[in-house]
Amino acid sequence: MKENKSQFALLGLLADRAMSGYEIQKIINNSIGFFWQESFGQIYPNLKKMEEKGWAGSVQIEQEGRPDKKVFKITKSGREELAAWLKRPPEKFPLRLEILLKLFFGNHAKPEISIQHLESELSNEVKMLEVYKNIKKEIGKCSHESQNLYSLITLDYGIGLAEHNIAWCKKSIQKLKKELSK
Amino acid sequence: MKENKSQFALLGLLADRAMSGYEIQKIINNSIGFFWQESFGQIYPNLKKMEEKGWAGSVQIEQEGRPDKKVFKITKSGREELAAWLKRPPEKFPLRLEILLKLFFGNHAKPEISIQHLESELSNEVKMLEVYKNIKKEIGKCSHESQNLYSLITLDYGIGLAEHNIAWCKKSIQKLKKELSK
DNA sequence: GAGAACATGTAAGCGGTTACATGATTAT
DNA sequence: ATAATCATGTAACCGCTTACATGTTCTC
């Protein structure tokens, strides 16, 4: 049987503070979004299931100048489940990098196509690296490092990955261009 | 509508030579397996669908000392579909790195747990790096580089990724150990 | 009035894994 | 015998995206 990992992602976020489904998605998009995505089609049904299992409780909150929202709060049982999941070794797969698949089959297309994919990836990663570095600067400014140790570790992964991607794109583009000029 | 990427992966492999479903999985596991996986539950039904669409044809092959096999061969129409897919820009997502998710939530577990995940990842990546480097050496020996240009590019991705992973694991383990000793 | 952001959900339908089911052949 | 490898498939079941559906409030 396969583990529903979305529920643990939601649990982990709720462990920090109570949130609505809508807020959860926003938080995901600007924190773990570069290595973990969730859609509303997953978030809302899973929050419901988590509540049924007693991992979270919800309250309707009235807001001024905004629609009501349903805020979910993790329970003791939810925290225990999260802790148990954190102890289990993470799985490496599934992993599917479509750009590598297209590159791998590059001999069945014109080299210009592979170069174009690489250049697009390169410009994208350069942008992302800039974003990550700015976030890191912000974290460094406003508080003790130890409080954000785990955010910093994952952020550093993103920075290293982007740097590797950039170097690899540049190198590969050069290889392909050299091949073109032959 | 979502694209069935498995079919293009299969198409790309069949573009090099005709193969059975069983052979395809073996090829995947020791070439693109580190960034792309396929299970039999995907391979066989998809080959069938591809045949129905005219992307591939199949013949039953009798073998000596082995069970019969059904070999699939790409058609002209299949090659056209592959070429058209290769031109379309690759998508970055979905991407889900479970180890990062567990690390990100590390503050809800003992630091020892995060360290253990990192050490396990580290030893695994060290092994993988060794494997990749040996493959690269083999490729370098037996033929012209240009023939394997695209394999080399994806392999270099794997090498760079493993190196980044190793550096990141080491750095993160140190950070967490320093935190422990406080 | 239009558009953007806030907010919550459901339904259809494919994607994908895991387990099941079967059987041949070889090596130990 | 029995385990391993070769070989092909199906079925159940959940994962997950996309599209649909609805409604509020604020800003321009």
For the structure shown, list the relevant keywords.
homodimer, about 180 residues, mainly alpha, Arc Repressor Mutant, subunit A, 2 domains, 3 strands, DNA-binding
Provide the fold topology:
The structure is a homodimer of 182-residue chains.
Chain A: H1 5-14, E1 19-20, H2 21-29, H3 40-52, E2 56-61, E3 69-74, H4 76-87, H5 98-104, H6 111-142, H7 149-180
Antiparallel strand pairs in A: 1-3, 2-3
Helix pairs in contact in A: 2-3, 6-7
The structure holds a DNA duplex (28 and 28 nucleotides).
Describe the protein.
2 copies of one chain form a homodimer. The first copy, chain A, has 182 residues and is mostly helical. Chain A has 2 domains: 6-87, Arc Repressor Mutant, subunit A, CATH 1.10.10; 98-180. Chain A has 7 helices and 3 strands. The first copy, chain A, has helices at 5-14, 21-29, 40-52, 76-87, 98-104, 111-142, 149-180, and strands spanning 19-20, 56-61, 69-74. Chain A has a 3-stranded antiparallel sheet. In chain A, helix 6 packs antiparallel against helix 7. The model of chain A has no long low-confidence stretch (mean pLDDT 95). The interface between A and B is large, with 65 and 65 residues. Chain A binds a DNA duplex (28 and 28 nucleotides) through helix 2 and helix 3.
